[in-house]
Design goal:
Elements (H helix, E strand, L loop, with lengths): L3 H23 L1 H4 L5 H8 L6 H6 L2 H6 L5 H13 L4 H24 L5
Helix pairs in contact: 1-7, 3-6, 6-7
């Protein structure tokens, strides 16, 4: 087994979790009261920025992609604290944010370093 195989597997897992995270945020206006389209757009649009680099497996993208999780993290924490009807979808989104973050870090750890 080469070093590329674990890196590719972890990268595929990261892309899958990223897609689940996007889907959970897109579902906010439909499953939770009080979360509008503007809030949803604010949380989901930054997540599309690193997708081409994640799919191509660029290490540099793995390094900066966690920064795009910040708006979704802030908004999901806010919804958990102040919007009771939206609490469960926001908790699911928070769990996916943490899983995506951990998987991106794992992908960085196993990705080959280029000189």
């Amino acid at each position: 087994m080469t070093a590329v195989e674990p890196a590719a597997r972890v990268r595929r897992l990261a892309i899958g979790l990223w897609a689940l995270l996007v889907a959970s945020i897109v579902a906010w206006p439909f499953v939770a009261d009080g979360i509008g389209l503007a809030t949803t757009a604010l949380a989901v649009l930054p997540l599309f920025l690193p997708l081409p680099g994640l799919i191509d497996g660029r290490r540099r993208t793995l390094q900066w992609s966690p920064l795009t999780l910040a708006p979704a993290l802030a908004l999901s924490l806010t919804e958990i604290l102040v919007n009771a009807p939206a609490r469960m979808p926001a908790i699911l989104t928070l769990a996916l944010i943490l899983a995506a973050f951990a998987t991106i870090i794992a992908a960085l750890r196993v990705s080959p370093h280029l000189p």
